[in-house]
Structures are given as structure tokens and as C-alpha cells.
């Protein structure tokens, strides 16, 4: 067991539930934690067949894993998911709230149901998953770690995504609030968030847009899902970190697009 895990969980073989982990970034996070020795609860809603296949692949790698299906916008299903994961593994040490939905919301086309859909999937589901998982973590001497996946654009919003960005922006406030509320119940429960930059561009994106995304960073490269996964593990295994919202965006949220030359401006 790594020193980071030992500092956080002692001799426990920790269990990580990663929502939305059948594919994309969530899957990378789950695989990264599996490689680090965590037992993995793979979650999916519509992609449950892929979740089951992924869990079987993890088992082949020698990782204790299982797939669980739930609609996270339905609170009763969230509670059942947490109860089932806890029953199956005997504990829950880590919750990574990775599941989300994403689509443009131009103001001129915005519908009430779009806003409701985004907040239900991206905000309320995170609150419900966190509070039910925390109810189990409170019972554990080693507490637990919750990591929410927000978005870099909550710091620098982009055009035509106001409702989506608002649903993700709420997670930064929720992260800090949960960190306070849950620490009162058990000081060993910590809540943090990762704010990823662009780590998965659409496969049909133009070369021009791809280069623009690269140019908008300080490190002059696109991010990768593994960059997010590394940050998640860091926040999970750092026992003195809580209430932190960590950008993982290559410097995009602080870069104006041009470098300031002080010598020119005196």
C-alpha cells in the first residue's frame, strides 16, 4: 500500500465508488485508482453493459470490482446504490462524483427543462450521492474522501453554456459547504473538487479549434483524462486537504491569451 493511502486509510483496503465510470474521464479515474490498489465500484446508468465489461476487466487485473446501475437524478436510487455498494464491499472510503451531462444552452434557446435537467444531473445528484455516502463514512474511524468533478469554465465562463456552467459552478460552493458540515460529524471526512480543463475534445473537432484549445493554455498542450485522475488521487490521499477546488487546466483559467511584457510598459 502506498504511503498516501496508509496516511489516509491506515491498513484498510479502501473502496472507491466512481460515478459515471463506464467510459470517458470517469473510467480513467476508476482505472487509475484500481492501479493504485483501490477496490472499485463502477457506476453507470445508460451504459451499464460497458460498466459490467469494465468491472470484469478490472477483475482480470486482480482488482476486486463490481458494476452498479442507478439513475442518480432519482434520490431513492442513489440511496439504494450507496447501500448496495456498502453491502457488497463492507465499506465506502472514497466517492468520486464524476457522472454529469453536458450540452450547449444559448440564452435565446434556453428552456426550463434544460436547466432542470442540468441541475438535476450535475448538482443535486452530487449532493445526494455525497450525503448518503457520508452517512456510511461517518461510521468509519478513517472517515472517507469525496471528490467532485466540476469544470474549469466556472472560473472563466464561455459563451452559450450558461446553464451548464451554473450547474457546475454550484459544485464549488457545495464542496466547501460539505467539507464544513461533514467534518463536524467526523473530522476524517474530507471533501474536495477538481476543475478540469479540456481533456477530451470531440473526435470530429477541427484542427483550428484543437490548436485554439492548445494555445489557450500556458503549458501549450491539451490535457488528458489521466491528468484529472492524478489530481483526484492526490486529493483523496492528502489528509490535510479539504474544501479545495483545484483547477487542472494547464493554466487556462489564469491565462489571458497573451503574455505581459513589463519592460514595454515601464
UniProtKB/TrEMBL annotation:
InterPro entries: NAD(P)-bd_dom_sf, SDR_fam. Belongs to the short-chain dehydrogenases/reductases (SDR) family. Keywords: Oxidoreductase. SUPFAM superfamilies: NAD(P)-binding Rossmann-fold domains. This is Oxidoreductase. One of its GO terms (molecular function) is oxidoreductase activity. It holds the Pfam family adh_short_C2.
Amino acid at each position: 500500500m502506498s504511503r498516501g493511502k496508509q496516511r489516509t486509510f491506515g491498513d484498510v483496503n479502501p473502496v472507491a465508488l466512481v460515478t459515471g465510470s463506464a467510459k470517458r474521464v470517469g473510467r480513467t479515474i476508476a482505472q487509475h485508482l484500481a492501479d493504485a490498489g483501490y477496490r472499485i465500484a463502477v457506476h453507470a446508468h445508460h451504459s451499464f453493459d460497458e460498466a459490467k465489461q469494465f468491472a470484469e476487466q478490472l477483475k482480470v487485473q486482480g482488482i476486486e470490482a463490481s458494476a452498479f446501475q442507478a439513475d442518480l437524478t432519482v434520490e431513492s436510487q442513489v440511496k439504494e446504490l450507496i447501500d448496495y455498494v456498502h453491502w457488497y464491499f463492507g465499506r465506502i472510503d472514497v466517492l468520486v462524483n464524476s457522472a454529469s451531462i453536458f450540452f450547449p444552452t444559448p440564452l435565446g434557446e434556453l428552456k426550463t427543462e434544460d436547466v432542470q435537467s442540468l441541475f438535476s444531473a450535475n448538482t443535486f445528484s452530487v449532493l445526494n450521492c455525497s450525503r448518503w455516502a457520508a452517512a456510511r463514512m461517518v461510521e468509519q474511524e478513517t472517515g472517507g474522501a469525496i471528490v467532485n468533478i466540476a469544470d474549469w469554465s466556472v472560473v472563466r465562463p464561455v459563451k452559450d453554456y450558461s446553464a451548464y456552467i451554473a450547474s457546475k459552478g454550484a459544485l464549488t460552493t457545495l464542496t466547501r459547504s460539505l467539507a464544513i458540515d461533514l467534518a463536524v460529524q467526523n473530522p476524517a471526512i474530507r471533501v474536495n473538487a477538481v476543475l478540469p480543463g479540456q481533456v477530451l475534445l470531440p473526435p470530429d473537432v477541427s484542427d483550428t479549434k484543437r490548436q485554439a484549445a492548445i494555445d489557450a493554455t500556458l503549458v501549450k498542450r491539451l490535457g488528458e483524462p489521466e491528468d484529472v485522475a492524478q489530481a483526484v488521487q492526490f486529493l483523496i490521499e492528502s489528509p490535510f486537504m479539504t474544501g479545495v477546488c483545484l483547477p487542472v487546466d494547464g493554466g487556462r483559467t489564469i491565462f489571458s491569451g497573451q503574455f505581459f511584457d513589463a519592460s514595454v510598459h515601464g
